[in-house]
Amino acid sequence: MTHSSQKFVSYTPFSSNRKITIADGSVSTVAGQSDIAINKALTLSNVLHIPKLFTNILSIQKITKGSNCSVVFYPNRCVFQKQSTRRIIRHAKEVNGLYYLEESSG
C-alpha cells in the first residue's frame, strides 16, 4: 500500500466505495491500484493507492510470491535478492522493529 503516486507504472482508479481500515482504526478510501517500480530489478504489481496513509507498507508475502524475489532477514537489516541469481536488489534497515527501504539509485 502506498500514499504516493511517484513511482506508478500504470494506474487503475477505483470508485469511492472501496475502503480499508488503517492501523489507527480509521477508515480510508482506496483511490486505485498500480504497478510500482521499486528499482530497475523490482516491480510490485497491484499496489493499493491510499492517499491517507502517512507511509508506504510492503507485504513480504506479496513481494516473495509475486516478484521472483527472496527476502533474507538479519538482526538489524534485511536484503531483497533476485531468486534466480541471488543478486541483491535492495536493502532495508531495521529501526525500532520496522524495516525501512534504503534509497537506491538503481
Please describe what this structure looks like.
It comes from Gossypium tomentosum. InterPro entries: PolX-like_BBD. With 106 residues, the protein is mostly beta strands. The chain has 2 domains: 1-55, no CATH class; 58-105, no CATH class. It has one helix spanning 60-66; strands at 12-13, 19-21, 27-29, 32-39, 42-49, 69-73, 77-82, 88-95, 98-101. The protein has a 4-stranded antiparallel beta sheet with strand order 6-7-8-9, covered by helices on one side.
Secondary-structure blueprint:
Elements: E1 12-13, E2 19-21, E3 27-29, E4 32-39, E5 42-49, H1 60-66, E6 69-73, E7 77-82, E8 88-95, E9 98-101
Antiparallel strand pairs: 1-4, 2-3, 4-5, 6-7, 7-8, 8-9
List keywords for this structure.
mainly beta; 1 helix; Retrovirus-related Pol polyprotein from transposon TNT 1-94-like beta-barrel domain-containing protein; PolX-like_BBD
